[in-house]
Amino acid sequence: MTVTHSHQTRTTDSDEIDLGKLFGILIDARWMIVSMTAVFAVLGVAYALLATPVYKADALIQVEQKSSGMPALGEMGELFASESSSTTEIEIIKSRMVLGKTADKFNLTTVVAPNYFPFIGKGLARITDSKPMIDIARFDVPEYSMEETYTLTITNEAGTEYVIENQDGRELLKGNVGENTQSNGFNLMVRDLQAEQGDSFSLEKRSRLDAIQWLQQNLGVSERGKQSGVLQLSFEGENRALIEAILNDISTNYFLQNVERNAAEAEQSLAFLNQNLPGIKDKLTVAEDQLNAFRQENESVDLGLEAKATLDVMVKLEAQLNELTFKESEVSQRFTKEHPVYTALLDKRDTLLKERDRITKQTQKLPKTQREVLRFMRDVEVNQQIYVQLLNKVQELRIVKASTVGNVRILDEAASYSRAVKPKKPLIAVLATLLGGMLGVGIALLKAAFNRGVENPDDVEAIGIPVYASLPLSDLQTQIEKAVKKSRGLPAKEALLAEANPADLSIEALRSLRTSLHFAMMEAKNNILMISGPSPSIGKSFVSANLAAVISKTGKKVLVVDADMRKGYMQRHFGVKWDIGLSDYLSGQAEKQDVIKPSGVENLDVTTRGKIPPNPSELLMHPRFTAFIEWAQANYDMVIIDTPPVLAVTDASIIGAHAGTTLMVGRFGKNPVKEIEVANERFAKAGIEVKGFILNAVERKASNAYGGGAYGYYNYSYK
Fold first, then answer.
1. Does residue 593 lie within any of the structural domains?
2. Which are the contacts of 288, defined by CB distance < 8 A and separation ≥ 6?
3. Are residues 437 and 463 in the same domain?
4. Where is 623: in which H helix or E strand?
5. Residue 503: is its pLDDT beyond 50?
6. What are phi and psi for residue 313, nearest 5 degrees?
7. Omega of the bond prior to 423 within 30 degrees of 0, cis?
8. Which range is most confident: 174-188, 279-293, 309-323, 684-698?
């Protein structure tokens, strides 16, 4: 029950987030985080300084909701009133009809730019004010060569001659500034050029549609306020003068098309009236001739008072009906018959027609002669009134057409801001710094998350292996290893940490291990100690050599054997040569006394690995190895055997059968607990009991309580 409870507690604890450990991980990785933050900050500042500034120009346009040629014309002016939402006007501004004229005027189908050194060349040229300039008036290419990039290179010191090459380096044409040059289907006119010999430009001919799309991408149109009818146009680009000119041209083109649109409506109505005017005039002439002929025939009959009153009413009704007919012809172009305006007009016409029918019936009561005169006079006056009315309309429309101003007004012409809108230098520097910091923190946390290496002795003891010692990482040992690699061999007093600095914390920890071993080996079958480990490069040779030196200081005679006949390098710690070693003895090429070498440390001898054999495992199973172990056991107080990693080869399992005590070495932060457990199982299957574990190269970490807790070390050395 107790074991189960502790397991449940451990599981619960592992599910909790240890904020202290996370904070400790960040403290351990502080220099990496600071370095990465600094690098990103420098890159951000450099980009902000070298990036090409992008400027912005804006203009203001008012779109009036209603507009007419002359308000004084009354109903005639209302006829040409127009309403349009801001959304509609924005789409008109962005249309190809408007932007296409700008693309043609500024030759935007030709794309030209100086060639700079990648990444930083353009920024440096801007800072040093040495930017080449070219003005191309015309550039035509064959249809099959559209969208290809060409190179224009200056060929003389005066900067007046140039050559054009394609992407393959083939020369297409040569020319001079100010001259129109044609060759191979290409046509180029360079208006102005300010560059030095050797400078080059990239040339590209894009389609008119692509040029218009480029304008649409860089043009911004928005309504200021809600339903204000005031549109703000903005344009972004690197050249302040160019973007101002482009925006002014777009505003002008939009204004002119609006005026032309309103004038076109008046023009259409004027054409309609001029077409119908001759017919009305002919009808009037016929009616007058008929009236005169009837009067002559009947000797000038005069109308009575009742007939005159009826005639006036009928003329007015006909005038109103003709006015409605004229309005209907205009309304029918704008509305359907179901529209309220159209319906009201039809209702009014029906009422007038009924009234005309009533008056017509009244005239039937008049004498025949008066009725005929009344009919002829009515035709004359009605046609005369229609003719005069049409003449008035024609004159009014001519005035409307001449005075059309449209419903668009340019309030502010284009002007560019003095400061660039992109890049936002302070923001880029801050964001780059924050990104560097976050990236550093992320890398530190990821490394900690993926690092399954054991960092706490409790984790090893949890799988049933007691921890005999924890050896702190020695800075001096790191320096010694570098020196040994450079000089290829140093004497033991310089290459062995126990000799170079006996007061080192790692050596103090080995002295503690020496004491623990003294009691652990009392019940062992012999005085042979095997030191192994699960993987290479964890410090087995370091532990074996320095532990042997520490034990020899107590007056005991010690032999340290390098049994790693594949990659052993025990010789480095003592400044001896690797040849004539264990492999030579086992293969019968040397005797015992030949492979025992003085280490340079009192009471300590060493046996190196010897020549690398093709069959190390088979040599270890040879009776000569057993004989060597028995001889060493009899002639030395302690025999320490350094073996290859047990998970890599089987050598350690063979040697372990001869050893009375076995210790396993693991490196701090490198060997996972699972790997140590598998290595222990490998020894157990071979019948070897691992007495204890040595945690090597322990670092003092803020993320690990182990670094400064009960397993820490105090620097208590002599002055």
1. yes
2. 380
3. no
4. helix 623-635
5. yes
6. -65, -45
7. yes
8. 684-698
User: How many other CB atoms are there within 10 angstroms of residue 336's CB atom?
Assistant: 9
Q: What's the CATH number where 574 sits?
A: 3.40.50.300
Q: Are residues 626 and 514 in the same domain?
A: yes
DSSP 501-521: -TT-HHHHHHHHHHHHHHHHT
Rounded CA-CA distance 39/36 in Å is 5
* Segment among 47-56, 140-149, 176-185, 400-409 with least mean pLDDT: 400-409
State phi, psi for 645 to the nearest 5 degrees. Answer: -65, 135
Distance separating alpha carbons of residues 549 and 595, to the nearest angstrom: 19
How many domains does the chain fold into? 4
Residues 380 and 352 in one domain: yes
What is the four-CA torsion angle of 703, 705, 707, 710, rounded to 10 degrees? 180
Query: How far is residue 414 from each of residues 223, 245, 257, 304, measured CA to CA in Å?
Result: 16, 8, 19, 73
How far apart are the C-alpha atoms of 279 and 276, rounded to whole Å? 6
272 falls within a domain: no
Question: Predicted confidence band at 11 (pLDDT cuts at 50, 70, 90)?
Answer: very low
Q: Which residues constitute the domain of residue 186?
A: 110-205
Q: CA–CA separation, 504 vs 514, rounded Å? A: 15
Buried b (16+ CB within 10 A) or exposed e, 469-483: bbbbbbeebeebeee
Do residues 441 and 547 both lie within one domain?
no
Query: Can you read off the two tokens belonging to residue 8?
Result: 């449940």
Separation CA 639–CA 552 (nearest Å):
11
Answer yes or no: is 364 within a domain: yes
* Confidence (pLDDT) at 1: 35
Sheet holding 149-154, edge to edge: 110-114, 200-205, 149-154, 161-165, 171-176
Helix or strand (DSSP H, E) at 593: helix 592-595
Name the helix (H) or strand (E) containing 111: strand 110-114
In the sheet with 133-140, reading across from the earlier edge strand, the strands are 133-140, 186-194, 180-183
596, two tokens: 């025992």
Within this chain, do residues 432 and 501 fall inside the same structural domain, yes or no? no
Q: What is the pLDDT of residue 314?
A: 75
Whether residue 205 contacts residue 139, with contact meaning beta carbons closer than 8 Å, is answered with: yes
State in Å, rounded, how far the first CA of the chain is from the last one. Answer: 53
The C-alpha atoms of residue 45 and residue 197 are separated, in whole angstroms, by 33
Q: 100, exposed or middle or buried, with CB in 10 Å at 0-12, 13-18, 19+?
A: middle
Closest CA to 666 of 623, 695, 630, 626: 695
pLDDT at 23: 81
486 and 596 share one domain = yes
Rg of the Cα atoms in the chain: 53
Q: Are 191 and 137 in contact (CB under 8 A)?
A: yes
**In b/e form, how buried is each residue of 118-133, taking b as 16+ CB within 10 angstroms?**
eeeebbebbeeeeebe
> Is 213 a domain residue?
no
Q: Residue 256's Cα: distance from chain center in Å?
A: 41
DSSP per residue, 208-240: HHHHHHHHHHHEEEEESSSS--EEEEEEEES-H
Q: Which residue type is seen at 316?
A: K
Q: Whole-structure pTM over 0.70, yes or no?
A: no
Phi, psi of 562 (to 5 degrees): -90, 95
- Nearest-10 Cα torsion for 342, 348, 354, 356: -110
Is residue 62 within 8 Å of 411, Cβ to Cβ? yes
Q: Is 45 helix (H, G, I), strand (E, B) or coil?
A: helix
Q: In what order do the strands lie in the sheet with 467-472?
A: 467-472, 690-698, 661-667, 528-532, 638-642, 558-562, 604-607, 597-598
